[in-house]
Every structure is written in structure tokens, then in C-alpha cells.
């Protein structure tokens, strides 16, 4: 078997290349997650990758908003979490984006659904109540949700204090 056969017959490797591809597409597409998520979905499903179930299995751990706030990147020894529609994602692998002082730190340690839907980096928009979003913004939020599902593990769900 040639090295090419080995690479192309291994779903994990193809899935890994889907992630690389989506990162590359994302850089090109800037803040347009729809392009990324559709492409990644195609490649991942071609590779036979399970894009949802494995991650959902970890999703039931309850996390209150004040617990979530401890994972905002200010303590480098702790993971960094971002929640979308109550689902908590571990984004620790992207400290350069979500860590202290980084461009997207505004989303860290909180459910930032509204801000993601609005494409807003304003801290006052980084809240969980997204009931004021219009249809297009809800769509944007859903696309971010899909983007995070593919990239990050779900580590819990936000519950009331
Ligand atoms: C001039 C405006 C912007 C530029 C040039 C820009 C650029 C980028 C680039 C290049 C990435 C990909 C980085 C990577 O994959 O490593 C990215 C990711 C991202 N951007 Fe922006 N962005 C802009 C505005 C915004 C705004 C307004 C939002 C608010 C929602 C936003 C939210 C995000 C998020 C959530 C990610 C995903 C980070 C991740 O988890 O990998 N961006 N942006």
C-alpha cells in the first residue's frame, strides 16, 4: 500500500484534513462561518466522521454562569470555555484567540450567543439572551454554533445559579 493509499483510506486523517481545510477557508472567508461549516461538513462526512454524537455525550455536566465565568482565560492554569445557546465548549486550544487580552476574549467565560449572532465584539452584547435577534442574526448564531460543534468539545450545559 502506498503512502497515499494509507492517508486517503484513514478517516481520522481525512477528518484532520477537514479541520485544516476549514481553518484555511475560514481565514479566507473572514467572519463568514457558513462557508466553513458547509465545506467541513462535506469533507467530514466523506471521511465517515461522526460530527455530533461523540461530543454530545459529554454535554450534560451542569455549569452555572458564575462557574463558567472562572473559565474566561484570566487564569492560565484553567481551561477556557465559551457557551452558545447554553452549550459549553472548551476553546482552550485557541488561547491566542480567546485568552486574556486576545481579540475574542469577550466571549470567554460566558454564554455569548447574542454577540455571536450580531457579529458584535461589544462586551454588552456578549450575553445569553438572544431573544432580540432577527432572523438573519439567528442564522448567523446557528452557523457559529455549527462551527463550534465541529471544532470544539462540549463540556457541559449552562444551568441557573
Ligand atoms: C475586521 C473584522 C474581522 C476580521 C478581519 C476577522 C478575522 C478572523 C480570522 C482571520 C479568523 C480565523 C482565525 C483562525 O481560524 O485561526 C476569525 C475567527 C473568528 N472570528 Fe473574526 N474577524 C473579524 C470580525 C469578527 C467579529 C465582529 C466577530 C464577532 C462575532 C468575530 C468572531 C470570530 C470568531 C468567534 C472566530 C472563531 C475563532 C475560533 O474559534 O477559531 N470576528 N476572525
TrEMBL record:
Stored SMART domains: Cyt-b5
Coiled coil: none
Ranges for domain Cytochrome b5 heme-binding: 63-159
UniProt GO molecular function: heme binding
Positions of region (Disordered): 47-72
A GO CC term assigned to this protein in UniProt: membrane
Pfam families: Cyt-b5
Protein family (similarity comment): Belongs to the cytochrome b5 family. MAPR subfamily.
Protein name as catalogued: Cytochrome b5 heme-binding domain-containing protein
Organism: Saitozyma podzolica
